[in-house]
Amino acid sequence: xxxxxxxxxxxxxxxxxxxxxxxxxxxxxxxxxxxxxxxxxxxxxxxxxxxxxxxxxxxxxxxxxxxxxxxxxxxxxxxxxxxxxxxxxxxxxxxxxxxxxxxxxxxxxxxxxxxxxxxxxxxxxxxxxxxxxxxxxxxxxxxxxxxxxxxxxxxxxxxxxxxxxxxxxxxxxxxxxxxxxxxxxxxxxxxxxxxxxxxxxxxxxxx
Length: 207
What we know:
By secondary structure, the chain is an all-alpha fold. The chain has ten helices and no strands. Helix 3 crosses helix 5 (100-109), helix 4 packs across helix 10 (177-206) and helix 5 (100-109) runs antiparallel to helix 9 (144-173).
């Protein structure tokens, strides 16, 4: 028996009806477009990392974009698998009932605003070119208002993506957005505590 068709367009409804949207997706087909979403989200994250690390100081714009186009989607999918697994694992500690497949769907579909922010790359490249990835930024300095406006829009989209993430995760886990935040915080602790313990132990060993 085939899965029921989606009664809404998740690319539109996700922005204002995240819980309803992710529920419709997991009821119909939790694998719907999730790999493409994870890849595109990874592409957006790779662009941000290339910018903050000033890769343009060493490489041409064409090389940077080629690296991002290859590494971004791969990293996005790997990170999506790992983060979804961690959310499922730690979520059970606070009563989460979501299965791995549904959590992956929530993580993927909450990234819609981040993916849409990729459209801003077109005007950014036209206006600022390689300055987006370099330490010296004469073209950005000459149009600082335009640059700040685009960055503020990107930040707003990223914040909204996080809000959608908390709501969608809460829906599939069966709890509130606030408890979703706790779910995320547990992942931070799971990763951070061993690092701190190792660092303290290593420091003590060197004494």
